[in-house]
Design a protein that fits this description.
This protein has about 230 residues and is mostly helical. It has two domains: about 120 residues, no CATH class; about 100 residues, Non-ribosomal Peptide Synthetase Peptidyl Carrier Protein, Chain A (Orthogonal Bundle), CATH 1.10.1200. The protein has ten helices and no strands. It starts with a helix and ends in a 6-residue tail after the last helix.
C-alpha cells in the first residue's frame, strides 16, 4: 500500500510540496479545473477540521469516480509527520490485513476527524472565539471572521449571541442593547450591527469632508486680506 500511496502522491503533483501542481488526467478523474490540494496534516487538533474540508472538496471535484480505496489512499498520502504518522501506519496495516474496510471516503474522513479532533478541536475553537475583537475593522470583516471561528466551537443560540456582543465595539453594542426593539437572534445582531457600523463610518467620512471644506474656504479670505493690506509708509 505504501507504493500505491507514493504513486498517488507523484500523480497529484508532489503532495503539498509547493511545486507547480500537475492535474491528474484521465476519464476517471472528473473535471480538469484547477483546484488547490490540502496541506500536509501532522495530527494537530486545531487543523483537522480544515484538512477534512479540503480533502472532501477535492475528492468531490476531482476524484468522484475513483474507488473508495484509492480515495482513502490519496487522503493518507497527505497525513504525515507528528502523531499522525503512527496512526497512518496502523490504518494502512489494518486496511492491508482486511481488519477494516470503509464503505465511503466520507466514513474514513469522519474517523480521521474523530481520532484527531474530538473535544480538543472544539476547545481550540472556543479559545480562538473568545480572543476575537472587532477593533478598527469594519463590521462586515469582523462578522466573517467571527462566523469562521464560531464554526465547530459548539456555540449556538443565546451563548453565540452573548459572545458576539462582547466582541463588537462598545458604542454599537450599547446602541443595539438600548434600542426600542433590541435584536434577539444572531442573524439580527449581524444585520443591525453592520447597518449601524456602515452609518457611523459614513457619518465620520462626511464630517471629515465638511471639516476639510471649511478649512479650505476659511483660509482663503485671510490670505487675500493679507495680500490687500497697504504697504506701510517708510
Amino acid at each position: 500500500m505504501q507504493g500505491q500511496i507514493q504513486a498517488l502522491l507523484a500523480a497529484a503533483g508532489g503532495g503539498g510540496t509547493g511545486s507547480a501542481e500537475r492535474e491528474i488526467t484521465g476519464s476517471n478523474m472528473g473535471s480538469q479545473m484547477e483546484m488547490a490540494k490540502p496541506a500536509i496534516f501532522n495530527g494537530e487538533a486545531g487543523r483537522v477540521g480544515g484538512f477534512v474540508i479540503a480533502c472532501r472538496l477535492y475528492l468531490r471535484m476531482k476524484m468522484r469516480e475513483v474507488t473508495v480505496e484509492e480515495q482513502v489512499q490519496w487522503v493518507l498520502s497527505y497525513v504525515q509527520r507528528g502523531s499522525a504518522d503512527v496512526w497512518k501506519e496502523n490504518v494502512m496495516e489494518e486496511l492491508e490485513s482486511g481488519e477494516i474496510e470503509y464503505e465511503s471516503a466520507e466514513e474514513f474522513l469522519m474517523s480521521l476527524k474523530k481520532e484527531f479532533g474530538g473535544g480538543e478541536e472544539e476547545s481550540v475553537k472556543v479559545a480562538e472565539l473568545r480572543k476575537l475583537e472587532q477593533g478598527g475593522r469594519t463590521m462586515e470583516e469582523f462578522i466573517q471572521e467571527f462566523k469562521r471561528t464560531a464554526r465547530g466551537s459548539g456555540y449556538e443560540g443565546r451563548p453565540l449571541v452573548e459572545e458576539f456582543k462582547q466582541e463588537i465595539n462598545g458604542g454599537i453594542r450599547r446602541k443595539l442593547m438600548e434600542a426600542e426593539n433590541p435584536p434577539t437572534s444572531i442573524e439580527q445582531w449581524y444585520r443591525r450591527a453592520m447597518a449601524l457600523d456602515r452609518n457611523w463610518r459614513e457619518s465620520k467620512r462626511e464630517e471629515e469632508r465638511l471639516r476639510e471644506k471649511k478649512e479650505a474656504t476659511g483660509s482663503a479670505p485671510k490670505q487675500e486680506q493679507r495680500q490687500s493690506l497697504p504697504r506701510p509708509l517708510v
